[in-house]
Amino acid sequence: FGLDFLFEWPAWIGTVLLILLIISVPLLIIGYLGTIIDHRNWRYDIDEEYVQLRQGAWFQKDQLIPVTKIQSVETKQGPLLRRYKLRAVEIETMAGEYSIPALPDKEAYALRDEIAAYAKAKEEDD
After folding, report:
1. Do both 17 and 49 map to the same domain?
2. In the list 64, 89, 94, 113, which could disulfide-bond 100, CB 3.0-4.6 Å?
């Protein structure tokens, strides 16, 4: 808007900029609120047989991962997660990779160790 005012561009450019602003602000708010709602509807449960992941507020997705199929478990941390002292736990199987996002550091390490212990115990039983 400042450049439009400074260089006295044609009137249609200012109109297009205003329309883009009017459209982008509600979309930004909806995206932000959608992210918060999705994060609050993230659940996981771990026992000796399965790792269960549930995500989504409007469209729920349930994943059941047998502990016997887990090949590796690791924690990952990017710059944004590092800023808030969070980590993601990545679970890898032959079928694919699954993620439990944005856990506090201590909880992520404890969860990783718990899943690894269950997977190792099942491997030794077989």
Report:
1. no
2. 89
